[in-house]
């Protein structure tokens, strides 16, 4: 029996940091707040490294039991932790990237109000995310699941005095909730049919059952419902609408939560539940289809966005689609690999975008940027590394992970692969579009600054002349992430990463892979995907550097189609009309006017009115007139006499 | 026979006096009608043999109480009473009510007494016997009524006295 | 030999007249007089019953009733005088300040 690693410390440390900052942060100095936040987050990271160091000596999967939670008849849920290779990957990614973003945030948020609140929420988020990752049963994972949604709401709406930020936070939470509903029903089904939520127990029970290939059975339903939850958390169709709005939050939040960690929780959950999905191939197909479609859909929207963060948001949705596509074709390790590399380069992209925004004093519209590479060279270099990584240029990280996915997709169904390659082309195009518009050409910010100051985020520096480079504390994390974006993919060479994760996912997938895909097909696929990336680069170069007047002409000629893309295919408006408006109207008319005012208020008010009416009638008797009193006495006397006579006679 | 005739005659005078009381509009006429009623009631008492009660009725009731009434009527210079719209309850509900109640009581009493009759001077109420009863069996109520009369006197004096004029130069 | 019920009927008539007078009269003093009429009617029935049951306590009670009636008339008239002094009217319909 391996001795306990005290895994419970890993989530608890950031929680302590959150508590200290949350309760006392108002009275502490900024330096103290930073120190507290960074210390506890760093401590969690160090513990993650310690676990990694001890990893080879552990008997896996390693489960740690902390205490019991629910005991209800035969149903038991405990506080327990679960460690295997998948957990280790997620743990290191979450704590490592999280720690870097904490450091970055110190510089980014230094002049903001509510400094302690931000770091308290950030640590709180780390706590929930680590609970999610280290959980040993579905219910504990659900705590983390809900908790990261809460932290996301708090952080998106950080500048809550701004209407759009508060609404964005609400939207994120509500859409997440819809997904969580599906997740919960899946949990209920699991409880009903397997009597437990513990990973080991559930998976071993399911492994003994045959796969459901026909129709929609129990396991398929569970799988589909879990996918609903994942679609909400990881922003897939149809529940992706909250992610672009979530860009209202500070940029480190977008980097941490909406690029590197929270949105990957859905992928992690699907990967963890792979046993269920393997026994429900129809559900898995749905996962793949949703992932593929989302990847393409979001990429097309990203082409026409002008806000630098929105482009990255849609890019995140698209890349998450890739991860789900990978899981959907049972290439779980490829999906997790892409999750890891994506954390590196997308996190870097967001942080660098934050640096850019910081440099130009709050402007987020790319049309007002340009030629920034001479002003902010370090940011430019790191962002370049990330852009090449995401576009899939070798030998950067993104190339290896994306290629792995595309290869697996090709084996499963060439249609997936084709859409994947198209999406890769579009990805490359819009990323280099962003790159060219931001860093090349002339700086268009000056003439715009003369017209209006429009700081899109809370900085409000407003037109302080030339763009300036960010301080070192913001640049160091960028550099570290840039290095990781370059070398991070090299762990995948020769299938080493897949091999590492194979005890979790089984050797089956890999065995099929090496047989089905011959060497020459593989090379062809690689060449095609690299060509797609290069094509995207070239197209962006032409349209945004060489002939900058062309995009406008193309947009004009496409007319309505272009308008639709710019307006995100009007999805938000459709949702508002189809779902939000009827709900709000129904709630107003039925629940508020009908039930609350009509029934509950009316019951009380009418009772009071009734009492008043009765007493109004009763007080007519007290007229002050002696004769009427005598009249009543006479009548009363007669009644009583009659009654007594009647009683006597009976 | 004589008993019955006497009863009927003086009974008729009683009822006539009562109805006259109701019909008259000036209070003094009502008061005097009441005196008539009391006088004829005294005769009725005599027919039943209650001599002492009859005497007390005339002396105290008709002779003192009614005189007091007449004094007050003349003191307050009460005129013919004006017709004001009072309460409908009293007229609409009260009168039928009292008639119904009275009829019911009368019916019960008549049924219970059946055909019992009393003769002329059935129960002689000599002052001596009544005095004996008052001072032996009913001593306590007797003493209490004297206290009651005392209280009534004090109350009347206080209630009817004029309020004292206030000294305007009083120091506070 | 007169049936007792005759006396009772007479007593009832007097009492009812008293009550009706109480209800229809508007002068306070007249209403008071009707109260006295009611008491007289009751006295008669006391004496009649005493005669029927050959029990003298009926007559003694009549004596007490008269004493109480006298005391009550005294105090009542004193009140009427006090009311007249403040309200300047003897019409009972105008003395209705105790209303809601």
CATH level 1 class label of chain C = Mainly Alpha
CATH topology type of chain C: Helix Hairpins
Q: Mind telling me which CATH architecture of chain C this is?
A: Orthogonal Bundle
Low-confidence residue ranges of chain C = none
What gyration radius of chain B follows from the Cα positions, in whole Å? 22 Å
Rough outline of chain B: extended
Report the mean per-residue pLDDT of chain C as an integer: 90
Number of helices of chain B: 6
Structural class of chain B: mainly alpha
Domain count of chain C, please report it.
1
Query: What radius of gyration of chain C results from the CA coordinates?
Result: 17 Å
Q: Could you walk me through the main structural features you see in this protein, from its secondary elements to its overall organization?
A:
The complex is a heterotrimer of chains A (650), B (172) and C (100). With 650 residues, chain A is mainly alpha-helical. Chain A has helices at residues 9-24, 30-53, 85-108, 115-134, 138-156, 163-194, 199-207, 218-233, 242-245, 251-260, 265-272, 274-278, 281-303, 308-328, 332-359, 377-391, 397-412, 414-439, 445-451, 472-487, 496-505, 508-516, 519-546, 550-558, 560-566, 571-619, 626-649, and strands at residues 62-72, 75-83. Chain A has a two-stranded antiparallel ribbon with strand order 1-2. In chain A, a hairpin with a 2-residue loop joins strand 1 and strand 2. Chain B has 172 residues and is mainly α. Chain B is extended and about 70 Å long. The model of chain B has no long low-confidence stretch (mean pLDDT 86). The mean pLDDT of chain C is 90. Chain C has helices spanning 4-24, 28-53, 57-87; one strand spanning 2-3. By secondary structure, chain C is mainly α. Chain C contains three helices and one strand, in the order βααα. In chain C, 78% of the residues lie in helices and 2% in strands. The interface between B and C is large, with 85 and 71 residues. Strand 1 of chain B pairs antiparallel with strand 1 of chain C, so a sheet runs across the interface.
